[in-house]
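Subgroup meeting minutes
Present: P.N., E.W., G.H.
Scribe: E.W.

1. P.N. recapped why we're keeping a running log of single-chain structure predictions: easier to compare across weeks, and new members can see raw inputs and outputs side by side.
2. G.H. added today's entry (87 aa).
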Amino acid sequence: MSVLQQDDSNAKEKVDEVADRTPMSAGDPIAAAAAGSVLFAWYNFYIRGEKETGIFVGLWAPTMLAAASYLQQKDIIQKFKQGLASF
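Output recorded in log:
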Protein backbone atom coordinates (compact mmCIF):
# COMPACT_ATOMS: atom_id res chain seq x y z
CA MET A 1 0.00 0.00 0.00
CA SER A 2 1.44 3.33 -0.98
CA VAL A 3 1.51 6.40 1.24
CA LEU A 4 -1.04 8.13 -0.99
CA GLN A 5 -3.52 5.28 -0.65
CA GLN A 6 -3.03 5.27 3.11
CA ASP A 7 -3.72 9.00 3.26
CA ASP A 8 -6.90 8.51 1.22
CA SER A 9 -8.22 5.91 3.66
CA ASN A 10 -7.41 8.16 6.62
CA ALA A 11 -9.18 11.06 4.94
CA LYS A 12 -12.25 8.91 4.34
CA GLU A 13 -12.30 7.85 7.99
CA LYS A 14 -12.05 11.48 9.09
CA VAL A 15 -14.91 12.47 6.78
CA ASP A 16 -17.01 9.63 8.17
CA GLU A 17 -16.26 10.74 11.75
CA VAL A 18 -17.28 14.32 11.01
CA ALA A 19 -20.45 13.14 9.27
CA ASP A 20 -21.36 11.00 12.28
CA ARG A 21 -20.84 13.90 14.70
CA THR A 22 -22.73 16.44 12.59
CA PRO A 23 -26.25 16.96 13.88
CA MET A 24 -29.18 16.84 11.52
CA SER A 25 -30.07 20.34 10.40
CA ALA A 26 -33.58 21.76 10.34
CA GLY A 27 -33.42 21.74 6.54
CA ASP A 28 -33.27 17.94 6.28
CA PRO A 29 -36.86 17.20 7.38
CA ILE A 30 -38.10 20.21 5.43
CA ALA A 31 -36.43 18.92 2.26
CA ALA A 32 -38.13 15.56 2.80
CA ALA A 33 -41.48 17.28 3.33
CA ALA A 34 -40.96 19.32 0.16
CA ALA A 35 -40.22 16.17 -1.82
CA GLY A 36 -43.34 14.57 -0.34
CA SER A 37 -45.44 17.56 -1.33
CA VAL A 38 -44.19 17.27 -4.91
CA LEU A 39 -45.21 13.61 -5.01
CA PHE A 40 -48.59 14.48 -3.50
CA ALA A 41 -49.02 17.24 -6.08
CA TRP A 42 -48.28 14.80 -8.92
CA TYR A 43 -50.76 12.36 -7.41
CA ASN A 44 -53.46 15.03 -7.31
CA PHE A 45 -52.67 16.38 -10.76
CA TYR A 46 -52.20 13.17 -12.76
CA ILE A 47 -53.95 10.36 -10.90
CA ARG A 48 -56.93 12.09 -9.28
CA GLY A 49 -57.25 14.60 -12.10
CA GLU A 50 -57.62 17.53 -9.71
CA LYS A 51 -55.34 19.91 -11.55
CA GLU A 52 -56.00 22.99 -9.39
CA THR A 53 -55.31 21.06 -6.19
CA GLY A 54 -52.17 19.59 -7.73
CA ILE A 55 -50.87 23.02 -8.68
CA PHE A 56 -51.71 24.41 -5.24
CA VAL A 57 -49.94 21.57 -3.44
CA GLY A 58 -47.05 21.83 -5.89
CA LEU A 59 -46.41 25.36 -4.68
CA TRP A 60 -45.82 24.11 -1.13
CA ALA A 61 -42.36 22.73 -1.97
CA PRO A 62 -40.70 26.00 -3.04
CA THR A 63 -42.43 27.81 -0.19
CA MET A 64 -41.09 25.36 2.40
CA LEU A 65 -37.60 25.41 0.90
CA ALA A 66 -37.55 29.21 0.76
CA ALA A 67 -38.67 29.48 4.40
CA ALA A 68 -36.04 26.95 5.49
CA SER A 69 -33.35 28.81 3.56
CA TYR A 70 -34.37 32.12 5.14
CA LEU A 71 -34.27 30.65 8.65
CA GLN A 72 -30.88 29.02 8.05
CA GLN A 73 -29.44 32.27 6.70
CA LYS A 74 -30.84 34.16 9.67
CA ASP A 75 -29.21 31.66 12.04
CA ILE A 76 -25.86 31.90 10.23
CA ILE A 77 -25.92 35.71 10.39
CA GLN A 78 -26.74 35.59 14.10
CA LYS A 79 -23.84 33.20 14.78
CA PHE A 80 -21.53 35.37 12.68
CA LYS A 81 -22.50 38.49 14.64
CA GLN A 82 -21.93 36.65 17.94
CA GLY A 83 -18.50 35.64 16.72
CA LEU A 84 -17.63 39.24 15.83
CA ALA A 85 -18.85 40.48 19.22
CA SER A 86 -16.25 38.34 20.99
CA PHE A 87 -13.37 40.34 19.48
